[in-house]
Specification:
The protein has one domain. About 65% of the residues lie in helices and about 0% in strands.
């Protein structure tokens, strides 16, 4: 089931569906880990994601999607800067949970 959910749907799913069902704790911890707070530094956000292995799996899938510039017809410098930020985050998450583990 987890693999069938698009990365951009995770935040809404974690915040609503999972937290309402029998997996309340799972949903709450995923929502907490995956939701970036206002004014929160991106590195701090990724640090919080690192505390939850399932959140790492989800965030890595989200980052892979975000790093696919083929979905953008004319990438700008801002897109390339975001790409570098996403690569650093993916590397950090992958070091904590290598692909064979994730």
């Amino acid at each position: 089931m987890l693999e069938a959910i698009a990365p951009n749907q995770w935040e809404a799913l974690c915040a609503s569906s999972l937290s309402q069902g029998s997996n309340h704790r799972l949903g709450s911890s995923l929502a907490f880990a995956l939701t970036k707070r206002a004014n929160e530094a991106y590195d701090d956000y990724i640090g919080r994601v690192l505390e939850n292995e399932l959140a790492c799996r989800v965030k890595l899938a989200d980052l892979q999607d975000n790093m696919d510039l083929s979905r953008i017809s004319q990438p700008t410098e801002e897109h390339h800067q975001s790409l570098e930020k996403y690569r650093r985050a993916a590397e950090r998450l992958s070091k904590a949970f290598p692909p064979s583990h994730v």
